[in-house]
């Protein structure tokens, strides 16, 4: 895995975050009025650049994925989330291999 630090991309360890919460207490990850939640199967291959008008939250459900934005790269494994700011051109890393849920907010 590559270093998960970037000035624009951010990895969140959802398992650790959840374990730090008091028992049966909600923690708001994001709020969306309308938008989309997608389920994707990412396998090793070339991925095109993407650009979205809204923030993208990529939650890794199985395996590991990487996101590349310019010279920056962050990786996340099962139970982690990558935050991609609105307007940032990015692509899945070619060695991504996992199942992810992607949350987009309202445009």
From TrEMBL:
Residues 48-103 form the Cupin type-2 domain. SUPFAM superfamilies: RmlC-like cupins. It holds the Pfam family Cupin_2. Signal peptide: none annotated. Coiled coil: none annotated. InterPro entries: Cupin_2, RmlC-like_jellyroll, RmlC_Cupin_sf. This is Cupin type-2 domain-containing protein. It comes from Undibacterium terreum.
């Amino acid at each position: 895995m590559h270093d998960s630090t970037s000035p624009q991309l951010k990895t969140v360890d959802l398992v650790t975050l959840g374990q730090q919460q008091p028992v049966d207490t909600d923690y708001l990850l994001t709020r969306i009025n309308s938008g989309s939640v997608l389920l994707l199967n990412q396998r090793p291959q070339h991925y095109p650049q993407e650009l979205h008008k809204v923030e993208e939250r990529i939650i890794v459900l199985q395996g590991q994925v990487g996101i590349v934005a310019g010279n920056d790269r962050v990786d996340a494994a099962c139970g982690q989330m990558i935050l991609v700011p609105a307007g940032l051109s990015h692509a899945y890393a070619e060695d991504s291999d996992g199942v992810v849920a992607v949350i987009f907010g309202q445009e």
